[in-house]
Amino acid sequence: GLDPAGPCFEGTPPLVRLDPSDASFVDIIHSNAAHFPAIGLGMYNTTGHLDFYPNGGSVMPGCTNLIAEPKQNDFEAVIAEATAIGGCHHSRSHEFYCASILYPDGFLGYPCEKYDLLKAGECFPCPKEGCPMMGHYADQFPAKLERVNQKYFLNTAADAPFATWRQKVFIKLSGAKKMRGDINLVFHDREGNTKEYEVASGVLSQDQVYTKYLDVEINPKNTKKIEFLWNKAVFSLLWARLGAETVNITHGED
């Protein structure tokens, strides 16, 4: 089910909508789901054996952030407006599925009650039974038929091929007690591609451990090096004395 239809189907009995009884395995990607009064083309409620909610399941990065608000009661007019505004979000579901064929480990879904918990890092890492992959390889999850009504959340990149790998970063500083600046990590792959991510910004102190969850667009299996980068725009004598005591990066069990 690639963003199964929401209007006229949300909240209806299983007889008239997609549900786990319709096939031996029902696999769902929600990409434009929204609750009333916001209008989305997709269904928000779980409706399969595995229900994936990339980026929360409603608004996709790389598309406009607007979700239509109903301005009239005419159903056809509401759907037309939602299609014009939400079409990009709605279409991401099949784009994600296609991308997952080429990136079989780039769309890991984490079991979570809601998206805010994923963003806070509370759903990382995977539980002992593992996590399913959104898209083409979802059927390889051993517990695929045992988690009905469980929502799986993940983040994707804004642009094709959309794959990301969630990593947890710990940085402990040393040297100066306190100063202002930025800490970034730059990931390099073997083809020369780079992606830079901010870990901390503002007042930095050696007394604090900086933790950040990153959804990195560089495949860990293809990572050549990870560069620890200070903000070069800061001029201070203390800056030269500030260093990193430890930098730990966790991906899965590695």
TrEMBL record:
Q: What Pfam families does the entry give?
A: Lipase
Q: Does the keyword Nucleotide-binding apply?
A: no
Going by the UniProt record, its keywords in alphabetical order are: Secreted
Give the CC-aspect GO terms.
extracellular region
Spell out the Gene3D superfamilies in the cross-references.
alpha/beta hydrolase, PLAT/LH2 domain
Give the main localization category: secreted
Domain (Lipase) spans: 1-162
GO molecular-function annotation terms? lipoprotein lipase activity
Record's subcellular location: Secreted
Answer yes or no on keyword Phosphoprotein. Answer: no
Query: Which family is this sequence assigned to?
Result: Belongs to the AB hydrolase superfamily. Lipase family.
- Tell me which PANTHER family the record gives: LIPASE (PTHR11610), PANCREATIC LIPASE-RELATED PROTEIN 3 (PTHR11610:SF100)
Question: Could you tell me what this protein is called?
Answer: Pancreatic lipase-related protein 2
List the top taxonomic levels of the source. Answer: Eukaryota, Metazoa, Chordata, Craniata, Vertebrata
